[in-house]
Amino acid sequence: MSAPGRTDRRRRRGAVLTAALACSALLAGPGPAAARSAPPTPTAPSPSPSATPPKLDWSPCRPGSPWDCATAKVPLDHAAPAGRAIDLAVVRRQATDPGRRIGTLFVNPGGPGGPGTVQVPQNYDAFPKELRERFDIVSWDPRGIGNSTAVNCFDTTEEAASWAARAPGGFPVGAQERKAWIDAYEDLGRRCEKRDPDLLRHVSTADTARDLDLLRRAVGEPQLNYLGVSYGTILGATYANLFPRSVRAMVLDSNIAPRAWTDDARQGEPDTTTLLRMGSDVTAAATLDRFLTLCGSAPAARCAFSAGSPEATRDKFDRLMRRLRERPIGPWTYAKPVADTVNSLYIVDPGWTALAGRLQELSQGRAPQPPVYPPPPPVDRPNPYLGDEQAAAVWCADSPNPRDPAAYHGLEEDSARRAGDAGRFWTWAAEPCATWPARSAAGYDGPWNSPTARPVLVIGTRYDPSTPYAGARAMAGELADARLLTNDGYGHTALFNNGSSCVSAYESRYFVDGTLPPPGTVCRPDRVPFS
Question: Using CA atoms, how far apart are residues 257 and 166, in angstroms rounded to an integer?
């Protein structure tokens, strides 16, 4: 559920805890057995704007860098602003046309677990030109993540690497791997509980929304301009309902349905996972089918995996997955290419072309070459630690998931019947939450219809492998005043695919002067993949 970039290789090794997130009030202390019981759902707190806005001492992130860096100190517990403080790493790129500057645009690139201080600079050119000209672009690593005060459950990088080697890559296949997966993530939860239990209880989406309001006040903005993608949409919706009168302009791109995130604030044990409630399995299957259809409609010169027709290309993919399940090619076991396929569907260009090349290599019995990552952005700490525990700390403490690890195999089989290979991948992405030891002390689970000062623009993409178009429809329906813009295109987020000048134009105009697209507007991509 997060922006593309070189940090993905470290966060997507196993469960996609960032999915779409994809991802509220006691720390379960007695041990693993107690941790598996369903924690009580907390009462939603009211906003606490009494904390003093942090002072941002901007300076170039590196000599000659166009990006400025600062550190913001905020309360660990917004209900106790005089208590422990934590650090937020913040970056800024000033408006390129200062004479026409409107203000500051805050951006969350997704996750949970996406480090804004890396991913936003990495993807700066994806922002529409008018937004870069007229707004300072500001992002930050949310509490618990990356270069901010981070959840880190290991003493050394070697210890973290040793733990990471225990869990099967992608998702577990067979009883032995399921046990290894469950044991590894149960151990991760125990380690995290010992390190900093107070931090684990204060990394919720609502905590980050309160941080965002302090950052807004710190840069002197009377109201918030905000662009949130993927998990950033649930953060934006939370902010809009905690601080509704502070919204000037808010775009939510590739949406998580709020009631899917909170399990409709129900009491008791959830029946299924966050991602399956969202429909990530079904939308990934539909996007994969579209990829194979477009690939099969193109010659091999344009899509290397093409078998000459959509039907033949789908059959070729299914045969390849069956073969890899029985006879892996080097490290490419069945689960690895499934995970690689779902992740590679996020970004159309160059992701879909590169994916077709890797699948073709595998179909010919060769292990593909590792992907080439872009150079790091010009910031001072471009490679922060981004272990699985950071996404888990937000997602598992915020969004209900089944607490019995034994339930996940049955959920996997149900999802596989609906969505094929992608269903197995998305089911196990949530399993680390089964034994996660904490729930947030200050979460928010609705209501979602507080009237905002200005309407919200919601963008949904038809073929998204993570956050389904239905999530955008649900978000637009649940917010008090929102307009849905449909991107009849491909990939995860309209922003980072940057494939529709129509979407960019509507988005820019909305941020500049508040003009919404007409009801029912549908944008199409500038170019169809493999055409």
Answer: 33
Total-model pTM: 0.92
Phi-psi region of 334 (alpha: psi -120 to 50; beta: other; left: phi over 0): alpha
Q: What is the pLDDT of residues 38-93, one digit of tens each?
A: 333 333 444 555 689 999 999 999 999 999 999 999 999 999 999 999 999 999 99
Query: Which residues are paired to 483 by β-bridges?
Result: 457
Q: Does 447 sit behind a cis peptide bond, omega within 30 degrees of 0 on the bond before it?
A: yes
Cis status of the peptide bond prior to 350, with omega within 30 of 0: yes
Give the ranges where 297-348 is alpha helix by DSSP (H).
310-326, 335-344
Q: CA angle 71-124-347, nearest 5°?
A: 120
Longest Cα–Cα distance in the chain: 66
Whole-number pLDDT of residue 48: 52
- 514: left (phi > 0), else alpha (psi -120 to 50), else beta? left
Tokens representing 201 are 């209880």
Identify whether the C-beta of residue 134 lies closer than 8 Å to the C-beta of residue 102.
yes
Distance in angstroms (rounded) separating the CA atoms of residues 86 and 74: 6
The three state secondary structure string of 394-454 is: HHHHHCCCCCCCCHHHHHHHHHHHHHCHHHHHHHHCCHHHHHCCECCCCCCCCCCCCCCCC
| pLDDT tens digits along 275-330 | 999 999 999 999 999 999 999 999 999 999 999 999 999 999 999 999 999 999 99
Residues 142-153 pLDDT 10s: 999 999 999 999
Q: What is the pLDDT of residue 371?
A: 81
Confidence of residue 398 (pLDDT cuts 50, 70, 90): very high
Backbone φ and ψ of 199, nearest 5° = -65, -40
Q: Of 231, 226, 193, 327, whose CA–CA distance to 20 is shortest? A: 231
Structure-token pair, residue 329 = 């090619």
Classify burial at 81, counting beta carbons within 10 Å of its beta carbon; exposed 0-12, middle 13-18, buried 19 or more.
Answer: middle
